[in-house]
Fold:
Amino acid sequence: MQVAPPMPAHGQSLKPYLLRAIHEWCVDQGLTPYLLVAVDASTRVPREFVKNGEIVLNLGLEATNQLQLGNEEVTFQGRFGGKIFPLLIPLARVAAIYARENGEGMAFEVVEAATASHTGATEQASTENAVAPEPTSERPSHKPPGDRPALTRVK
Structure:
């Protein structure tokens, strides 16, 4: 998994384009795209499924309704515990997108909002479609040491 550079000062971020490209690649390959999100006050997800300030979401076509991978946010409807929930994820909070089956994908720098604060994580419960099982012990690094991005593989 590669870490994408921060948004360039001279133009729009590559992040939404890379996100859409990796999602499309996963779907074309018959793989399940997962989205790792660093949850804060600007992120609209069911809080009872947040663990350690993060949530992993299944972005597969069968698990989402009205999926929009926009330039500023990801929106869709997902099922949690049998109930439909509208989700809104600012792109600044997307930490990674990867294929469940082989871990291939990309990690991104998470931008912390100065005024946003996390309301506290609760234990993750089982769901039907929208929440993916937690990845194995290795997770993408959100803040690589040093000035250069680090390469991290998610299994």
